[in-house]
Design brief:
- The complex is a heterodimer of chains A (228) and B (385).
- Chain A has one domain (34-61, 77-227): P-loop containing nucleotide triphosphate hydrolases (Rossmann fold), CATH 3.40.50.
- In chain A, the strands form 2 sheets. In chain A, strands 6-7-8-3-9-10 form a 6-stranded mixed beta sheet.
- Chain A has 228 residues and is of the alpha/beta class.
- In chain A, helix 4 (119-132) crosses helix 5.
- Helix content of chain A is 32%, strand content 28%.
- Chain B is an alpha+beta fold.
- Chain B has 2 domains: 3-44 and 256-382, no CATH class; 53-218, no CATH class.
- Chain B has 15 helices and 13 strands.
- A 6-stranded mixed beta barrel of chain B has the order 4-5-10-7-9-8, surrounded by 4 helices.
- In chain B, strand 4 and strand 5 form a beta hairpin.
- The chains are: A alpha/beta (228), B alpha+beta (385).
- Chain A binds chain B through residues 49-50, 53, 56, 58-59, 78-79, 82-87, 91, 93, 97, 99-102, 105-106, 109-111, 113-114, 119, 158, and chain B through 1-3, 5-6, 9-10, 12-13, 289-290, 293-302, 378-379, 382-383.
- The complex binds adenosine-5'-triphosphate and magnesium ion.
Amino acid sequence: MSESMVEIRSVTKVYERGKQKVEVLHELTLDIPTGDFVALMGPSGSGKTTLLNLIGGLDQPSAGEISVGGSRIDQLSSGQLARWRAHNIGFVFQFYNLMPVLSAEGNVELPLLLTKLSSAQRQKNVAAALEVVGLADRAKHKPRELSGGQEQRVAIARALVSDPRLLVCDEPTGDLDRNTADEILGLLQVLNREHGKTIVMVTHDPKAAEFARRTLHLEKGKLLEQAA
Amino acid sequence: MTRTGFVVANLFRKKTRTILTVLSVIMAFLLFGLLQSLSHIFDAGADFVGATRLMTQARVSFTQPLPLSMVPKLEAVPGVARVAYSQWFGGVWQSNTQVFTFAVDPLRYHDVYPEWVMPEQQWQTFAGTRTAMVAGKQLADKYGWKIGQKIPLSSSIYPQKNGSKSWAFDLVGIYDGKDENWKKQTNVVFINHDYFDEANLFGKGRTNFYILKLAEGSNAEAISKTIDATFENSPDETKTQTEKDFNLSFLKQIGDIGLIVRWILFAVFFTLLLVVGNTMAQSVRERVPELAVLKTLGFSDGSVLSFVLAEALSLCLAGGLIGLVFATLLGAMVEKATGGQFQLRVDTFVWSIGIATILVMSVAVGLLPALRAQRLKIVDALAGR
Ligand SMILES: Nc1ncnc2c1ncn2[C@@H]1O[C@H](COP(=O)(O)OP(=O)(O)OP(=O)(O)O)[C@@H](O)[C@H]1O
Ligand SMILES: [Mg+2]
């Protein structure tokens, strides 16, 4: 495959809970090539969310190096990381995490307030993103007027709208029924195959993992060797 | 949508709470505007501009009467055209209705107050009848008093020579005001000072205050200083001020109005800080995950801080400005209703301290929640830790 989108080198993550130190990730090394769609599985507490947060620049490793899209992000200050996230990463969460006071289009527009785009240009990008997730007709609806699946589509549109190359998704279908989950997973697949997005997705659901190009297993802070 | 739009949208997350909070801010600033303009009046220095009359009273208090022997000395002061005097009688109508009653020298009073309108014949009768009294039109209408009636009034202060506090006067005239303003104030009774002075059991030849009509174009401030200087170091030191300041000093008897106002405002704003502060703290507490998502999307810690501060500012600004507008309107209404007697001007000065207060309050209620939002760690907030 082509160059790496994500390069993780000997990353260790230790949380301090009072006096107790908990090592959640232990000297973890991982490469995710550009254009890949990786499912990350493992038992509860194995460190999946922790790893995803490190890749997405929401947290810093205790040791080791992380490069995403060619930039070292393990040394950035929190302000630099925020700016970096705005341009390079799209996030999708299990519980959608939309702003209840904003309409679908307001939610999707939110990340664009960090850009210099004109209002008209923002509207255009928002419309395009809602079109991709198939929700153009629900633009004016508030989150509570949408179904779970629709809310997750809005969240995906919000993750897409600033056109990042990498999407990180933490159990994006964890709160959805089978059919709806499959629709969302199909959408992610389209984003990966047709729009060239690299995707890292945490899931507990083996059926969901089947939508990915490959599956990684995390256990007690270490990746299990995996036959390609 | 803009950042401002986002802030406004967040304010309406809990409509009822926002509206109630804004209402309490409105009430506080309404009170603030009115009380501030009130204490502004009291704190303002003496203003002699345009004064055509001066009031002279004993320096300590007008409850301490001055001797009538001052009349010629006052008349001798250059710029004083005519001197009238007035003595508080403490009138009570029927069992316990207070009636503002003053014992005056009728013709002097007439000269000094051309604003009181009554047929000349009645002024003459007032002057010529020892037991005469004249009443303001409002008062006469209210109690159905007719000219020729004998009106029993008791005094809360002065007994007659025989020890009885019951007096009776012959109503010989009913005066009115020369215009709308003065018509509103025709609720005072005047009796003959000569008669009162003779018939009362206490002091003789004294009066509570003098009213000096000034010659046209004279310098009120200079005259006031001359008079007070004349009686300095005498047993009857004086205080001479404009009618407006005199009226204020009447109210000042109640207490230090400025201090009272400051305490009321302190209590109001202390309560307000708790109310609005609680609203802000709650609104941040209940959307910790949303604030974390903002940061996830790339909003800096500083932006998140400013979102919360902007919300606090919007709440305070909306309520504060509406409150000040209401205060301005209400103040103008009070001024109009009292015929300019009671000037509650919510002016530029009151507005500027009002706006400064709004800004300080926004920071006071917004800063702690905003700092909390700023310090929020994304991973913890997302995980609900
Ligand atoms: N901020 C933190 N402070 C202390 N401990 C933490 C913190 N974040 C995570 N942990 C601990 O690290 C371990 C891994 O957490 P993580 O959320 O990465 O697990 P996970 O694999 O995503 O689990 P799940 O499948 O339940 O989501 C857990 O034991 C958790 O309690
Ligand atoms: Mg997890």
